[in-house]
Write a structure and sequence with these properties.
By secondary structure, this protein is an alpha/beta fold. Helices cover about 40% and strands about 15% of the residues. The protein has a five-stranded parallel sheet, with helices on both faces. A four-stranded parallel sheet has the order 7-6-5-8, with helices on both faces. The site of ligand F0G has 21 residues, from helix 6, helix 11 and helix 16.
């Protein structure tokens, strides 16, 4: 098995390769890295994954991440050997990804204007720390453990810090969390405190916090667990794996995500590239990324709203200068990302190039929705008995918007990802106390 997994620079002109134990999140020329596998997994594994839904006492079968371990075997271990799995694979007692699968939600479908059979929504909020982050954190912390790291480091708008803090506490390692001062929902921040993480307050926004955390990780021997870490992306591939498995590996027409740092977009793209290359899926679903109106970098650049050029991956030759000029423009004009959906209040999506690659491979789209639309999306999910946070509401109203624009067709099959659980207690309270809101049910006296 040795030597079957390695790291490779995503820039086809650069293509530098590194051993799997490498902890840098970039190649020496500053490009992002992919985890690559030399083997082609047998399609018989589909049946193995299905059988593992009866876990037979193994937490690695119970886990919605490690159930697919052959497709993320960067530890290069014998995946059937549970003792060996226990030595390497980090899991919160099999809870990560365990409760995640797509559901039909009739009220959400009615609101969107599509038949109930065609819209699937996959709540990732029922992960142990309350968001999709646990999928990728289980794998990133596995790699951290594999290389003997004693401290993991992240910047966060909240959910990453909760997930990192939880796994760090469980593994007995330290965790530093860089947060934009005053911009995190208390319900998210309190989790990081609870798990014993060291909070570092940064004067600025998420983009500033990420920059500082990356610098500090490099200078003080910390292991970065933000989604620029390629091992995070590996675990997050299991989000589309679970959706596809549930649909008998028959690809839907669309997979829809809220867009922040674009780790999800990148991991979904990588998952689909791999599955298609191996012949596990015959059709490539299109990815739709939904930004907030107030933090719309990807949508602006992808749709040519800045300097009139539609930014593309362009077979590995994206116009990165356009991105630089866009960021300079934001700085010059003093434009800061601004939305009540703080999870996606991100101006400089660190994975933008992997995101563009994913959109190119899947013929994807990017668009924006407003705060009030996201709140409606969040609320209608609630009316189906499922809990999600405001950023996740973007997946629902994003579908509605793209349908109204004729981009998503009425008979298309769609999977929307509900990325996290409600942690900002006042958002639904305020929403329902304002009778003007579409789904408001104000209290009676
Ligand atoms: N939804 C939720 C609930 C999130 O917490 C995030 C990101 C996103 C969507 C955006 O996902 O970055 O993959 O495009 N939250 C990060 C954090 C940044 O620090 O918790 P993305």
């Amino acid at each position: 098995m040795q030597g079957e997994a390695y790291l490779k620079c995503i820039d086809p002109q650069c293509g530098l390769e590194y051993p799997i134990e490498t902890t840098s999140v970039q190649c020496e020329k500053g490009h992002l890295l992919d985890v690559k596998y030399k083997n082609t997994p047998s399609e018989n594994l589909k049946e193995v994954f299905y059988q593992r839904r009866n876990p037979q006492g193994s937490i690695f079968n119970e886990s919605g991440v490690w159930r697919f371990r052959e497709l993320l075997n960067f530890c290069q271990i014998d995946t059937e050997n549970i003792d060996e799995c226990s030595k390497y694979l980090v899991s919160l007692d099999g809870a990560e990804g365990r409760l995640s699968k797509p559901y039909q939600m009739s009220k959400a479908a009615e609101f969107v204007g599509i038949s109930n059979e065609n819209l699937w929504l996959q709540p990732e909020g029922y992960n142990p720390s309350g968001s999709f982050k646990d999928n990728g954190m289980a794998t990133a912390v596995t790699h951290a453990k594999m290389v003997g790291a004693t401290k993991i480091v992240c910047a966060s708008t909240g959910n990453t810090s909760a997930s990192a803090g939880m796994f760090a506490a469980n593994e007995g390692i330290n965790c530093d969390v860089y947060i934009p001062s005053g911009q995190i929902a208390p319900g998210k921040l309190s989790q990081a405190y609870q798990f014993g993480a060291q909070i570092v307050q940064v004067d600025g926004n998420f983009d500033d916090a990420l920059k500082q955390s990356l610098d500090d990780a490099k200078n003080h021997d910390g292991y970065t667990v933000n989604s620029v870490n390629p091992f995070r992306i590996e675990g997050q591939k299991t989000i589309p794996f679970r959706a596809l498995e549930y649909l008998n590996w028959e690809a839907p027409d669309w997979i829809v995500y809220p867009g922040g740092a674009l780790g999800n977009t990148s991991s979904c793209g990588k998952a689909l590239m791999e599955l298609y290359e191996w012949g596990w899926i015959k059709k490539i679903p299109r990815i739709a990324v939904i930004n907030s109106d107030g933090a719309s970098t990807l949508s602006d650049l992808y749709n040519g709203k800045f300097e009139g050029e539609e930014l593309r991956w362009n077979k590995g030759k994206p116009n990165t200068e356009l991105i630089t000029r866009y960021y300079d423009h934001l700085d010059k004009e003093g434009i800061r990302p601004k939305t009540k959906a703080t999870a996606i209040q991100i101006g400089r999506p660190a994975n933008i190039l992997k995101g563009l690659r994913a959109l190119e491979f899947t013929n994807g789209v990017a668009t924006t929705v407003s705060d009030s639309e996201m709140l409606d999306g969040m609320s209608v999910v609630g009316l189906n008995g499922f809990d999600c946070e405001m950023a996740s509401g973007a997946s629902v109203v994003g579908v509605k918007k793209l349908m109204n624009e004729g981009i998503i067709k009425k008979d298309d099959k769609i999977v929307g990802i509900l990325t996290g659980r409600q942690k900002d207690a006042m958002l639904p309270v305020d929403y329902h106390n304002n009778p003007q809101n579409k789904f408001a049910k104000p209290p009676k006296n």
